[in-house]
Amino acid sequence: MSSEQFDALVVGAGISGLYQTYKLREAGFSVRAIESAPDVGGTWYWNAYPGCRVDSPANIYQYWFSQALLDDWDWSERFPAQPEIKRYLQHVARRFDLYSAIEFETRVASAEWLEEQAQWRVVTDTGKTFTARYLVSCVGLLSTPKVLSIPDQETFQGRVYYTARWPQQPVDLNGQRVGVIGNGATGIQVIQTLAPEVSELTVFQRTPQYAVRMKNYKVDKHIMSDWRADYPHISKLVHTTFGGFTWDPAEEGHAATLTPEQRNDVYEECWADGSLKMFVGTFPETLVDPVMNAELTEFVRNKIRVQINDPVLANKLIPSDHGYGLKRVPLESGYYEAFNRPNVQLVDVKAEPISGFYEGGLRVGDKEYPLDVLIMATGFDAGTGTLSRMGVRGRGGQSLAALWGRDIRTTLGLQVHGFPNLFLIGGPLSPSAAFCNVQTCVQQQIDWVTEAISHVRESGHRSMEPTLEREEEWVRHHDEVANATLMVTVDSWYTGANIQGKQRRLLSYIGGAHVYRELCEEIQQQGYPGFKLTR
Length: 535
Hints:
By secondary structure, the protein is α/β, with parallel strands linked by helices. Helix content is 32%, strand content 17%.
């Protein structure tokens, strides 16, 4: 079978895939990107569900590599909705002629390392075969949906939609009886958006969530001008902070020098910002000290409680089994108030599990809930899910899926021992897997990967991979940092607990994006110690 040959093959054409394709091409490599969707965008293509919007401010959720791009793109909101983010990525792809490098509606069926040729052979679901010296995964952290198996779905006469694969054409839900399963970050956006539009909204909740009121606003020409004037400062600042944002938590130990009233003032300030500053802008102790976490948790609970009219309902909507910040923190815009509406009801499916579909809706226990539409906002197999399904086999035919099935491990989230010239962007055990503004951390990783690949070429080598010792060193460090936090005490997708049988390990590096960046830069400056280069 004939194959197309490139220096590098990039999997994915979302935020990371577009920039990685651009960087490799600028570095003089021939590159092809493979994308399963019919257009660019990745997450921002597929997640077209009602209410979808970014939870990082637009003035930091963007590329920094081109001054011309910064000059010619105007944002319309502080937290833009999905259509605007998709248009932005389409604009980037057009402006830098990236469409010509992308193979759309194509998935990787298998990827095999050919030791003798020092190349990857990639077979796609369309029957095409590619060979490339370097394989770069830009598939994203949250791209493989978790699919629920509910009995008797074939009997249901209504419609079922997954938020992660929402139809691209408009879906009219006005006047419909709609059910939603899942109330994480996605479910919250769906619920608050649909509550005023549908005749009845039934929320099937298993786990309540802490959510922070989003402070969104329109961006006029004056705000846009102020943003642009600050871009040079912001582009540097985001690389020096814990989470890749423009804010940082107070220094460790500072909380102990303050009175409870003074700490409360800090909480109030962060809450008023209406952003993820409420997650990464207070005190670092809130993620490691149970007493400090309890203090912050009570503050957040009180903020949520006043939004809900019925005290009994408030108790159901506010978590009681874990502290604030120990699971993914969503932003909301009227989520809790939605439950004050007469057309919205909450069903506790943890107390009484879903028993199955029937012709007219969903059955919980013995009770039937009539529905015209059921929306599944059930989350993702985060971090490892998509790459594990690509049939990746490294040296000696070693399966990446089998390896990660036993032990989720990487080196800096960038490479895996036994898989030469396989590079990961947003891979597990890196900050961008959950604890960093995605745009900040994937651009940092892509810059590192491009430099590493260029180093392999310029030094006359054919392949690069971490040694087992280097990988074990990183995994130990990652686990040591993770296990010092309260995060590992809670079941969530952060720890892989939402997927049955998945290894329990914090999927993202929580030592700080700024610390991670320094570690990566040190490795490059020292000539990649702990990485084996082969001629």
